[in-house]
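Deliverable D4.2, example record:
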Amino acid sequence: MAAFLEERLPTTIDWGGSFSESHSVQTITTIGGNEYRSLRHPFVQLSYDIAYKRDIDFVREKILDLYTRANGMFRGFRVKDTKDFSSNNYDKDPTAFDQPMLLVSGTTYQLMRWYGNSADPMCARRRIRKPVSGTALIGVGGTVYPPTMYSVDYTTGLASINANKTGTITGITKGVTTVITVANSMSVGEIVLITGCAGMTQINGLRANITARTTGTITVAINSTSFSNYTSGGEVNTAPQTGEVVTAGFLFDIPCRFDTDLSGAFSDWGTIDATGIQILELLNP
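Output generated by the structure prediction step:
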């Protein structure tokens, strides 16, 4: 696979350019006049036809240099799609609950941008391979996950949740904050899911922040004063469990390559008019 240049195409394009988004749809029309459509894959593909009219130094240093280092159409680079660059409604500030992530294996997930219902196998989507560094937020079961409990590879869009820490509950003390008796190696600031408790069933399915701990107890930010008394059973887990939705929010770039040879004209003294620069989204950078 060709190497990728982890840099962004300059966004100062002239608005004489154009864009298109394609979907891999095959259409067949029968002699009886019926049309049949099939979707080869659900991934959106962006293409841009952009233009620059700038001083020679700008075009040479920002465009020609990138084109040459990319070996023309060979290597990819980042592009900010100014109409769609956020997981939250195209251009809003991301939140931890914007988009369901796709489970890859174990506790590794792929950042995704869905355009519709993610449960629909034909839902239009993008695998987010090039999120903007430092922007990813993750939510598990409707709770914001602390950054210390995951890592994100901003060159692949893969998010890794920390290995699960678990413990068997043997007691719960009610209060404005709740003390759970459980042998553990957890840390203050981690988030735990509580399940399987008898008696105090109101606490089952809640995720909460650990505010204090000892080797035999954790204190969680749950007000359990009105809950039933704990009788037996239960466990705590830090990693996502079956049935929990894992979500993410982020800003992202589109991985692209040049889709044509580069050309232009010397329009004025010291100015290059570079038109017809075609770039195409890479579905598998």
